[in-house]
User: What shape does this take?
Amino acid sequence: MDRRDFLATLPLAIAANALPELKISELGARNREDTMTTAPSGAPAHDLDFASALQAADAIRKKEVSSVELTNRAFQRIDRYNPQLNAFAYQLREDALLQATKADKAQSQGRSLGVFHGVPIHVKESFAVAGHPCTWGIPPLRNSKAPRNSEVVDRLLAAGAVLIGATNVPINLGDWQTYNSIYGTTNNPWDTKRTPGGSSGGTAAALAAGLGYLSVGSDIGGSIRVPAHFCGIFGHKPTLDLVNLRGHLPGGESGAPDFSTLLAVAGPIARSASDLLAAMKVLGGPTGWDAKAWKWELPAPRARSLKDFRVGYVLDDPFAPPTPEVKTLLEKTLDTLTRAGVKLRPGWPTGVQSAELLRTYLFHLEAFFYSTAPAEEQERQRKEFASVMESANSGALSSFADWQKQNFRRLVYRGQWQAYFNEIDVFLSPVAFSAAFPHDHSEPQDRRSIATSAGARRYMDLINWIAPATLTGCPATVAPVGRTQSGLPVGIQIMGPYWEDATTITFAELLAREVGGFTAPQGFAD
Assistant: This one.
């Protein structure tokens, strides 16, 4: 596959109607008079540097530490460690301390603000935070100010979280590396000469280094899953449209109500699977007029012990064979599951052809990117890539009839996977064929290659293992399973049935108990 056509169709911006400027009432100065009390503390904040978000919330609830102390500690760590990582696009120090003080006052009055009461968190820069940049790394949007909060930001604030800032992204979220001319390059805390992944790379680097407790990323081509894999943390790509994407557009605009890309999602990233589950209960469910008609509740996991899970897997495939280092760790994970009494079944679901599925996914990806690009960008692409875009395998210039045929194929694949999940609970696969690789900002992207112990590999093949869960809309959780001999983290992808996000997250949590879960990178503990 020549993927020049794929990356060439990345839009420079997505058109949306501007909304009037709104004030951030949660963070505004008019709240200052209500934010002067802190809760008593009984434990040093640094004991919680690599705790989970739920553990931090529990410590606040038990008055072992105050939100102000944790928030100040987060900024102290950012001051110390962020210069070598460059994980943050911007910080909200004054606003965050106001929020933390309000949380402590509520705590002193016996009131809980939610499951993440007083916990310092951040979000990917692509999610709108009212009054702050939402550039997507696009230079013309350098001075953009989001008119209102995105849905995920509103929900996290409503759950009591303290927003400390936003994390770096690649240009237009279009890379598995995180760099742009506005904010610079983000480095991997396991090896600062390597990428943390993309496009949620700033988020993954920050969490792995103990800078904040929880974050939210987006994923259409592995932008949650690959950074989690590269940085040794947990990430969850939810069921399609379970988490509302309002306010996830360049410039922070809201976009058309009820618009779905049919591929992209927003989901949590954390140092523990339990945080993912708690976050999904906050982030998921209907909004707007949908909320008047129906309510959502996260379905219970299919099992609560490893031995009760029916597990399918494919660890190798000609379309993107994992490197020996990655494959060894994945095979060890299967050995661990076998010893735990897990029922394992190898092979793809009946009827699923991995290479054909990938082609269908790329068709939809190209159709989405081209259709949402500004008119001038579409014209440029038509001139520069005419022969490629007019190919029958490209979705960019397809007729609606051709697109609909491909859409039926998408739904057929979903049906095949759902039939498979009648007999299997979760499906395991690689996240990507390699661990984190050295920075490479050469252009064009599709001409890049990645040096591995098995020889040079095509850069664009990083997307191949991402395709099944994205095309079908099924949930997929990434859990760390170990490190290569050179010390780089490796994760495993856990795909599950549509709407049953708790099943993959619970499996990830149980697996972590067997293989170790998150480990802090060396050099980031005080």
